[in-house]
Automatic annotation (TrEMBL):
Protein's recorded name: Sigma-70 family RNA polymerase sigma factor
Family: Belongs to the sigma-70 factor family. ECF subfamily.
Annotated Gene3D superfamilies: 1.10.1740.10, Winged helix-like DNA-binding domain superfamily/Winged helix DNA-binding domain (1.10.10.10)
Listed PANTHER family: RNA POLYMERASE ECF-TYPE SIGMA FACTO, RNA POLYMERASE SIGMA FACTOR SIGZ
Source species: Streptomyces hintoniae
Keywords on record: Sigma factor, Transcription, Transcription regulation
Amino acid sequence: MVKKEASPRWDRRMQQRLARGEAAALGELYDRYASLAHGLAHRVLDDEQAADAITRDVFAHVWEHPESYDPKQGSLRTWLAVLAQRFAVRRLRAQETAAFSRADGDRAEDLEQRLRSASVAARADYIVTAMPTPLRDALDLAYFQRRDYRQTAADLGVTEDEARRRLRLGLQLLSTAHDIAAPPEFGGAA
């Protein structure tokens, strides 16, 4: 079960605690969001050890640069997801560039397409985990359990109009994973 997103007040207090150098704050943050960072990194890299390394890099960055988080740009959870995706894509780009330089068979366009696909997949995973539970539940019923909107409404105990609304909104959110625009910048995160 995905944990409820923390409040902006919690995010600011956590940032202040990290800025004071409270190791316990880093531990709490890690406990809450390590699986998010790891999951996004694994989705991009498809490598457990590399995802572990990216997760460590994300939390090392947070520990060393807590001031780079700007609450006005979004939640702490979003910032961590952006960091994980950026670090993973950067690592994938480096790995693919090294492989590209060793093998003449690959083309630069193929490399960019693989990077774009990995990035879109990571964004889609994040969007699904971040969307409100009612929307995620409706999409789960419609997609994985192959229910139509009427069956989804009955399973969720809502009206058919509400089921259609949830499905439409969930799909609209999910469709933004293909947007070319990058997520908002957060200070010196890159």
